[in-house]
Amino acid sequence: MSAGPSSPAGPLPWTLPFGARPRADGSTHFRVWAPRASRLSVQILDEAVRIVPMAPDGEGSFECTVPGVRDGTEYFFVIDDVRQRPDPASRSQPHGVHGPSRVVDAGAFRWSDDSWKGIALESMIFYEVHTGTFTPEGTFEAIIPRLAHLRDLGINALELMPVASFPGGHNWGYDGVHLYAPQCTYGGGMGLKTLIDACHKHGIAVVLDVVYNHLGPEGNYLPEFAPYQTCKYRTPWGDAVNFDGAECDGVRRHMIDNALYWLTEYHVDALRIDAIHGIFDFSARHILDEMRDRFHEQARALGRRAWLIAESDLNDVRVIRAPEQGGFGLDAQWSDDFHHALHTLLISTSHGYFADFGRLEHLRKALLEGFVMDGCRSTYRKRRHGSSSRAEPGHKLVVYCQNHDQIANASQGERLSTLVTLEQQKLASCALLCAPALPMLFMGQEYGEVAPFHYFISHGDPALVDAVREGRRKEYAAFSHFRDFPDPQDRHTFDNCRLAWSKLAQSPHRQILALHRDLLRLRRMHPSLGNTRKDLCEVTLDEQARWLVLHRRDPSGPPVLIAFNFSGEATHVALPEPEAPCKLALWTGAPRYFGPADGVAPADQIHAGSARIELSPWSAAIYVAAA
Questions:
Q1: Domain CATH code at residue 70
Q2: Are the C-beta atoms of 353 and 337 separated by less than 8 Å?
Q3: I want to staple 437 with a disulfide (CB 3.0 to 4.6 A). Which of 64, 289, 394, 452 is the partner?
Q4: Cα(489)–Cα(168) distance, rounded to whole angstroms?
Q5: Residue 33: phi, psi to the nearest 5?
């Protein structure tokens, strides 16, 4: 990476048209979309408080230019001479969601990533992080010393849970209300830019989780400016965002501008769009379709590769299907079905949505097709669910065996490391990192972190806190093993979720880390493991004996066989006849990975006519054919 500030030739094709924009002459231009306001002023909070009227433009917006207002000046908008409110497009909320906004010079940060062009989606290895619990400091800049660890592990895409300003000091981030203002307790905009710049120096892309389906309940002043929300549709989190009702054009612009803002001003490489099943839009052109085109156009204008990744629980292939085939054409989406298929093989459970899973056939389908629930009847939903993703390439699906939702919700905050044995934990990681899809680790998973990951908030309204507690109980009543969750408002709930990095030097955590490094190294070394070609995969299995073999190929490298034993007994696994002699490249039960003392290693080599191995309980073996 070359050093020095980046300076794209000519003006950028897009700049944020709203909010506060400082000018070279020492003045600042303010613009806000506020069709619900009759009058609007900006209150400047400097040495002498000034209130400056703003002029309407006849299209629902107000604007003015105020001299002597520079980067760092704080301000409010005043609606109808009565209500002091933060800027809907605020770049900084240094005193929290209820306080004044701060003028930010978007060009003040000196980037050093001018040669960074992004990375191919097909090569991404994701690592999901909650900024507040990843380090003791809980800030963006505190992540930077850990980037070398992630790079050496084999991670090339850091995925941050939402960072838009939320109430209080700690929160998952899905209660954000100031979508353009990175959380001040994390280090604000300068801290986030510093982290992203450092990531790019380490060859790591940055994926930002964004929420466009709802707005948080506390500090949400947007409806006082304009009809940002609608009661026409309801989400699990309250009123939906108004993407297709009266005055929706400004709302659509606000969300699309937000996507372009992160791409342009913050150099992010991808957005993970939260719960798009909560985005309701019956316009002739869906908001996701419009956002996709604008986002990709801007990425091309910037000379970078950038991606849009969806979260959806609908298993609707139209999310990732090409526009010319009637889809939204998003670049990828999370796939819960892989998690559910793997989880129920490790832990016998039929609670909630796990009722639809539990057989090796389900894992086979997740590996070779993607969606398991592909239009078949769902026991949990009591109806047919989903559509087939068989024809879509593997790089359009992000898979995982742990993530923030599945740990906190389905497992009551308990990580897989505390729910299964060490051998089962290693088996799950092998299945994940050998799958023909885009794998994602949850922070700490690479060394078997045992700290819980609970849901937590820090709201200021006691009635709202009570409502959140009750909502948690109702939302997860389908899990009949339900017990009370730790109080999400209790500070200890948050503190207990911090990673314990000291475990890296301890057994078995050190050995679990070695396994993840070796698995990711093999994925990089062998195209047959590193590609996402579902069409070049085959699976054989024995449901009764509980073994499964994944056979992967690539035109540019030797084939690979991965054998899995999903039982508590040693078993003989019938491998496909190898095309050439195959050598054992990795066995999860090896002493290097803290395997059991009585473990019996599988055959070191297999040849034509001898493709049958004995595999110890809950273990996996990877064989690579001779080149």
A1: 2.60.40.10
A2: no
A3: 394
A4: 10
A5: -90, 120
Beta strands in 321-449 (DSSP E): 332-334, 376-378, 383-385, 397-399, 438-442
For 373-396, the three-class secondary structure string (H helix, E strand, C coil) is CCCEEECCCCEEECCCCCCCCHHH
Q: Token pair for residue 260?
A: 């372009």
464 within domain boundaries: no
Judge whether 485 lies within some domain: no
443 and 567 co-located in one domain? yes
8-state DSSP, 603? P
Beta carbons of 5 and 111 less than 8 angstroms apart: yes
Per-residue tokens: 491: 């500070």
Q: Which two tokens stand for residue 288?
A: 């996701």
Residues 449 and 508 grouped into a single domain? yes
Tell me if the bond preceding 508 is cis, omega within 30° of 0.
yes
CA distances from 290 to 180, 243, 269, 282, 308 (A): 20, 12, 19, 13, 12
Which among 261, 169, 254 has a CA at the least distance from the CA of 208? 261
274 given a catalytic annotation: yes
With contact defined as beta carbons under 8 Å apart, do 278 and 214 qualify? Answer: yes
pLDDT tens for 357-375 read: 999 999 999 999 999 999 9
Q: Is residue 343 classed exposed, middle or buried when 0-12, 13-18 and 19+ CB atoms within 10 A define those classes?
A: buried
Same domain, 152 and 174: yes
Question: pLDDT tens digits for 142-194?
Answer: 999 999 999 999 999 999 999 999 999 999 999 999 999 999 999 999 999 99
Give the number of domains in the chain: 3
Residue 69 φ then ψ, to 5°? -120, 115
Same domain, 305 and 360: no
- For 409-442, letters b (16+ CB in 10 Å) and e give bbbbbebbbebbebbbbbbbbbbbbbbbbbbbbb
CA 539 to chain centre: 29
Active-site hit among 87, 311, 392, 518: 311
Contact 159, 440 (CB under 8 A): yes
In this structure, are 513 and 533 located in the same domain? yes
- Which of 299, 319, 334 finishes a domain? 334
CA pair distance 469, 533, nearest whole angstrom: 44
CA distance 124 to 203: 11
pLDDT at position 5 is 35
Provide the residue range defining the domain that includes 601. Answer: 338-453+497-627
0.70 exceeded by the pTM?
A: yes
What six digits make up the tokens of 625?
Answer: 């054919």
* Residue 311 annotated among the catalytic residues of the structure: yes
Asked if the model's pLDDT at residue 350 lies above 80, the reply is yes
Average pLDDT value for residue range 108-123: 97
Q: Amino acid letter at 479?
A: F
What pLDDT is recorded for position 608? Answer: 66
Q: Find the distance separating the first CA and the last CA of the chain, reported in whole Å.
A: 34
Q: What is the CATH number of the domain that holds 159?
A: 3.20.20.80
- 355-373 as b/e, with b when 16 or more CB fall inside 10 Å? bbbbebebbbbbbbbbbbb
CA distances from 36 to 56, 73, 89, 544 (A): 12, 26, 16, 65
Query: pLDDT tens digit string along 187-206?
Result: 999 999 999 999 999 999 99
Q: Which of 239, 274, 392, 449 is catalytic?
A: 274
